Amino acid sequence: MRILNIVESAYRATLEEQDDTVLWLSRALRNAGADLTVLLRGNAVSYAVQQACPTLSLGALTIQHPAQPNDDLAKLRAKGAAVFVVQEDLDDRGIDKQRCVEAAQPVRRAEIATLLEEHDQIWHW
Questions:
Q1: Of 2, 17, 69, 123, which is least surrounded by CB within 10 A?
Q2: What is the pTM of this model?
Q3: Domain count, the chain
Q4: Are 71 and 24 in contact (CB under 8 A)?
């Protein structure tokens, strides 16, 4: 069974790696053997932008394990999962493809129908 995991919502109070449940779940499913493809669209295209997520410190309290979406995408690709990012959504947000990690392959909106047809289940977040 092939699963297309469409991720459209992003960064909702994301502080620690487990707060980013969609990418975490995708990695866990892939590690368990699921045939999974990820499509980033809408605000979630920001996951593909090269970024550093530093440790957060509030007084003496620190959060040692920030979300690392670039690492999550790279690990998904390393496990054989395809990761796509909608080019028009990057364009709408003024994000140049050169700012994105290599793990995310651009795809045009017109090509999404083909992705849908190639998968048995579609999950939309």
A1: 2
A2: 0.85
A3: 1
A4: no
